[in-house]
């Protein structure tokens, strides 16, 4: 941490800051410039918030030097975290992973129809909401536990791993009985009771970014989970809040390569929520893989026109099939492969760029 | 809701949209313009999300006409909601209310010291954190229930009403036993399990705005509480996320008069979190009252230099005393009064604008 | 400037940075922490952009210590700049100033009608656009020089000072012949050729903030003008870009007290553009004065329903008359007075807070 | 345009709005809903700003139906605009185009060194600044006309087309004598005098997006140029302002596929300014092409450590060489090719994803 003193800070003020720094257990390092005096604070600053020092008489500002997260950082663990699901799918390894499925589980029929179609395309991770956080209390809130049972049946029958959202600490045990990956939604990224609860159980966690979270806040939310003992956290970008009313969200792909520098945790991209428009999902899926994402999570519904939620951003299985060849190219651009068929050699020529 | 069709939409597409609107139980109203065909949807659109129609073949965009919240709207209730606390303080009435106190309850001594000083200034509502949501898992998280017991002792001894935060649905019953007002923090504004839980109990709720929430999302969060049967909700602006690194937040006072047009719920302003800097709290407190806020919630600590959290934005009791006269002027600008002493006639001349 | 090295930077890298700092004419100051090595750069860093050092091998980040503007800073000039117009109005002095008038000069009749009404309220500075920057090339672009002649006639007849916009370096001489204050619009805040041109002439300049400018960029734009030799610059806040579609802009009053700490230049607030809605202009005008603004610039039109631009945010003269008493209270909250009648003692009781 | 009336609007108010709509030359279409009355406005609404109607008694809001730009829209011209430069390079055609070069022209030697290296990689369009808009008046402002002469010499010697910025209307003729493409910088996106000037000459224009411009404002800025008679406009995304201090800008790739739906103009992506960090330029270049950009404009400097501006975001020629194979993959993902060598078949295997 660096403490910058105001121009013309009095010697007694400087002395006071030095004393305070020592009282906190740090070693101060004084540096007198031409216009400002600066005090370096030597020691592990993570336990102190910079704000706690800005009140001191004579202080102009306090600049942190270290990132405030530790377990999530590349400094702490250089090698990428690879998460292996029960069905063998690896997230964060050499292959990029495609997770797909409906926004909400609406019925057994609807879920099996789309799951089977996805399995036919090689998809091995199914997403689907049982508990749905909705902006309006009057919107469809999900089927709840019956939806979890349907997902478990897909899991048992088709061998797909299941990603589904958990909304409160009380539901963690229940959802964990059915799901392979517990999703913490964007609205709950700083719901600390929930983060602590998913950190105390063993299932991998998909942590969505809040639409106004900085990368640092996001990594600190991951740190809440890691600090409870669960090392299997993946980060999911799903669009930030921006000023253009043309799009529901601004899908922020810059964080994909940025996070790769800052953290060892896998990074997943959600172009469906990220853009909110079906006609942008294809191009932005390609862009996400080309930027280096470890996987995509995409909304697919057999009949988007009848979806109870988020139909506007859902692809049909046939859309995804047409998109796949171009995704192989995009993964190759980042030096990766995709496990899902069809192979790029057969279908790429005719279809690339068409969806 | 208005459905705008694409230029050159085919008759069959138009027919399809009309049929779909009727199937949802609405009455469509066709209007053929020179460049676009538009379909008005007649009926209570609140049960349908506009997105559910944008997937239809031929549709360019869907524009909602009605606000999606109902119980929170001025259309539903024209008269302002006035909330009366056990100690007689009224929020949303003719007088503006000053809530003040430390960010965190750190000890019995610290809390009584500041509470007594505040009481001497006429403050009748004490804020203080027992459970603290902190961005970092390594920061001080609050004393928990012992802090609630200290607050209850202040309540019993000094007759002050207590505002304190509740972080999870499990804690609602506990916090409700000690507090007059349950605060839902900015990070939990869309923690729906928590909103439902505070909606099912009888204490008034102070609902802070998430730093990236639109006014509509904020009012829908209030609607979650109201829809559970608790009508005593007040809205608290505490700064939005913006792009200038100079300030921690951008305190958005525009929502104060805007909310007065949209809703009957009281609006409180928090200039301490809103700006994050002690030297801006005074001017922005005045501005908030002049803009028409029903009250302020301000961080005050007897010794900000020793505060375990948010010292940088905390006033001393003496700062607040010096600020009060100018707040009387600011309330008068909005046609309101303040209950807290000292009276503007005695102290205003010398002190206005000095803090 | 502080240079933070990466964890594990090699001695040769550290040596390279030290050598580079010395080559730039600065004195480096090495400080070895537990996890990071930090180099303080001693000397006037304003000539160097931090980015120019981040490329150096081993560097993690570079943190500036000094604000990059100089002439605009409080460090350079502690006393507030007071600008005196030809008709004796002082901006930045003890009294706050009310500037008002139509968005565009549309005709001699329209301009005189509103100017006379404003003069009757005590307003001594008239705003009015001759050259109008419009988002669409198809919208009304202003009357041009004939409008300037009308404004000059108001000036001669009624003794009001004139504020009007200049859009390009070629127009500076022309507009300067007619106007008391040259306005640089928000879209041109970083139009450096224009800033240089208004900096090379003698008229005071009203520099509007770009809707995405940081305070630092804004002060650097002022610095462009100051550096050319024109010390009479006032800063005008007119709303920033934010994410809520409910309002055209987010009027950012936090910069009012913040700028008072950073700069000696007067700060004006424009609640008309800042909010974009007539029904918010009153409350936010009060808030701006309570926050400490040196003046307001407000759109007033005798017949907003017939205005060729910005009718939606224009007050009528009668609206302004009703607003004035509450503005006196708001100015008093900030320890200031207003020159404009009516006096607060007569009209305040009945009208405060009603507009 | 759709006019939504307030709940309970009086018959006289509705009548007034209908009369006003007719007076503007439009045909109104009344639609009475259960909670709101809505009036459709039939006719070409582009000449009227929605704000001009919101003042009318009884009006709640006005919703535009048509995009306000015309010449730039896909409705106006369905086929993509293809721009052919003097040296035969086509922008907007089947091949994506790579523009590269230093931020500033610093000397003849520096410019030729990097230009020759780029030519060796197949690059046929050189970027380089002669006039540099800089946030600080104390930073290097470019060499001016001597830099243009150096660029012209590169053009004559190496056959590369030249892209360079023009900062004011007075400089358009001068820069047009030397350059193939005139760049309008982000800060000048709404400098209408400049837009008009580049619209009145024949050179193609590269119009950068202002960091807070909506897509609609950006297309309206293009419309200013098109409306003057110059049809050769390309749009360049270079990062928007967002809230995370971690990155200088938020490179917004969503606009790439979005603009492809809205306009026929070519879309170029600038990952150097878009991210501001050299280590993100590679991944985000790949992402931009995969998203469907018609080209990239990338800062390349032979010696970034000695660059007078923007060294932190400049690649070396060797970095670009290493990046090229992966760009071929990324272009293929979007169904495009690149003209620049090396071919993907030879170099892709070893290098993809490594930069």
Describe the structure.
The structure is a homotetramer of 355-residue chains. The first copy, chain A, is of the alpha/beta class. The first copy, chain A, has two domains: 2-63, Alpha-Beta Plaits (2-Layer Sandwich); 83-351, TIM Barrel. The first copy, chain A, contains twelve helices and 15 strands. Chain A has helices spanning 11-23, 51-54, 108-120, 145-158, 172-178, 192-199, 215-227, 255-262, 271-275, 278-291, 317-333, 344-351, and strands at 2-5, 27-32, 37-42, 59-63, 83-84, 90-91, 95-101, 125-127, 161-165, 181-184, 205-208, 233-237, 267-269, 295-299, 337-338. The longest helix of chain A is centred in the C-terminal third of the chain and has 17 residues, at 317-333. Chains in contact: A-B, A-C, A-D, B-C, B-D, C-D.
Strands of chain A, total number: 15
Query: What is the overall number of helices of chain A?
Result: 12
Structural class of chain A: alpha/beta
Q: Using the coordinates shown, work out and report the CATH topology of the largest domain in chain A.
A: TIM Barrel
**Helical percent range of chain A?**
25-40%
Main β-sheet of chain A: number of strands, strand sense, barrel status?
8 strands, parallel, barrel
Order of helices and strands of chain A: EHEEHEEEEHEHEHEHEHEHEHHEHEH
Overall residue-averaged pLDDT value of chain A: 91
Q: What are the segments of chain A in which pLDDT stays under 50 over at least 5 consecutive residues?
A: 343-355
Strand order of the largest sheet of chain A: 7-8-9-10-11-12-13-14
């Amino acid at each position: 941490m660096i403490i910058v003193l105001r121009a013309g800070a009095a010697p007694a003020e400087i002395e006071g800051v030095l004393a305070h720094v020592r009282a906190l257990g740090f070693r101060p390092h004084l540096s007198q410039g031409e216009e400002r005096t600066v005090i370096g604070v030597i020691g592990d600053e993570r336990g102190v918030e910079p704000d706690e020092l800005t009140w001191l008489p004579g202080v102009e500002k306090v600049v942190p030097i270290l990132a405030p997260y530790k377990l999530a950082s590349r400094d702490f663990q250089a090698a990428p975290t690879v998460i292996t699901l029960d069905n063998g799918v690896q997230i964060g390894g050499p292959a990029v992973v495609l997770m797909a499925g409906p926004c909400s589980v609406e019925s057994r029929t609807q879920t099996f129809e789309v799951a089977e179609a996805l399995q036919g395309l090689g998809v091995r991770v199914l997403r689907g909401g049982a508990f749905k956080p909705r902006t309006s209390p009057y919107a469809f809130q999900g089927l709840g536990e019956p939806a979890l049972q349907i997902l478990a049946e897909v899991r048992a029958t088709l061998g797909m791993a299941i990603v589904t959202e958990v909304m409160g600490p009380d539901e963690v045990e229940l959802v964990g009985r059915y799901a392979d990956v517990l999703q913490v939604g964007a609205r709950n990224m700083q719901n600390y009771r929930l983060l602590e609860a998913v950190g105390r159980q063993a299932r991998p966690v998909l942590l969505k970014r809040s639409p106004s979270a900085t990368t640092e806040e996001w990594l600190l939310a991951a740190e809440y989970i890691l600090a409870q003992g669960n090392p299997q956290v993946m980060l999911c970008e799903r669009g930030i809040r921006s000023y253009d009313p043309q799009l529901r969200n601004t899908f922020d792909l810059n964080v994909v390569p940025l996070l790769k520098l800052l953290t060892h945790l896998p990074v997943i991209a959600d172009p469906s929520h990220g853009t909110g428009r079906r006609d942008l999902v294809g191009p932005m899926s390609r862009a996400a893989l080309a930027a280096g994402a470890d996987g995509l999570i995409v909304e697919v519904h057999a009949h988007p026109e009848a979806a109870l939620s988020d139909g506007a951003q859902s692809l049909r299985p046939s859309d995804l099939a047409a998109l796949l060849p171009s995704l192989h190219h995009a993964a190759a651009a980042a030096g990766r492969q995709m496990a899902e068929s069809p192979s790029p050699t057969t279908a790429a020529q005719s279809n690339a760029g068409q969806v």
